[in-house]
Amino acid sequence: MKPEQYLQPVNEASPRISIQGCEGSFHQMAAQQYFGKNVAIIPCMTFKEVVDIASNETLSEGGIMAIENSIAGSILPNYNLLRKSELKVIGEITLKIEQHLMVNPGVKLEDIHEVHSHPMALQQCLKFLDAQNWKLVESEDTAASARSVHKYKSKHIAAIGSKLAAEIFELDIIAPNIHTLKNNYTRFLILQPKEKIEKITDANKASITFHTNHSMGILAKVLTRIAEFNINLCKLQSYPIAQKDFAYGFHADLEFETKESFYAMLEGIKPLTEEVNIIGIYKKGNTWNL
């Protein structure tokens, strides 16, 4: 898309937020839970595009990006995109992922020949799908599959996606909650350019990156120092450092009671690290079961 295609009137009640996927995606559901139903989404094909649009103040007020899933684990490319960008984390939200089988009105189970969806969604529903004799077709997005079923008025094709996708594209949910593992959650980060960030007075969580030298036990010393300040390390993710053979940095998510203890901890680990960067200071997010 060209930049002018993203331009929309600025409305404080309807912030423009870049998301991965089209209307009806789980990213849109997360955006609505965080910003409200009036949020104006900017659909993007890739996460890189999400970051690029979120970084441009003339095009958006920020972006939202999935960072980890309770079953699939960390989305490593997104950690790299975040680290290399000028964006900061201003919030988070965790969404329960519920997959539904949807069809055009009047279509019955016995009419279905094919099921279309994102590869991950198909994998999440294999126990249900294996009991059927349907052709499984991978697509780039769950919501895009729902849109296609609606657009072409398919009588023999179903899609797997969110409840929101079914509502937007006027499809019937013929089999709800077909995902095999019911405790499936995705965590999303809310991103803004650092120039737009306002102080969050009730912040109790932060994301940082750091790296150390290769001295014996140095990482253990850093983690021990963090614990000494009564900071809860709730996520530690390693990543390779470019131009250095087998050298790694770390992304850490930290929960704290006071920002004073967080800043004191940062000073405490500086002598043990070669570099420390704050990715965001924000309020711990809620978990939504929709």
TrEMBL record:
Its EC number is 4.2.1.51. The keyword Lipoprotein does not apply. This is prephenate dehydratase. It comes from the Bacteria. GO terms for cellular component: cytoplasm. Residues 16-193 form the Prephenate dehydratase domain. The record marks T186 as: Essential for prephenate dehydratase activity. Keywords: Amino-acid biosynthesis, Aromatic amino acid biosynthesis, Lyase, Phenylalanine biosynthesis. It catalyses: prephenate + H(+) = 3-phenylpyruvate + CO2 + H2O. One of its GO terms (molecular function) is prephenate dehydratase activity. InterPro entries: ACT-like_dom_sf, ACT_dom, Chor_mutase/pphenate_deHydtase, Preph_deHydtase. One of its GO terms (biological process) is L-phenylalanine biosynthetic process. The lineage of its organism: Bacteria, Pseudomonadati, Bacteroidota, Chitinophagia, Chitinophagales. The keyword Ligase does not apply. Residues 207-283 form the ACT domain.
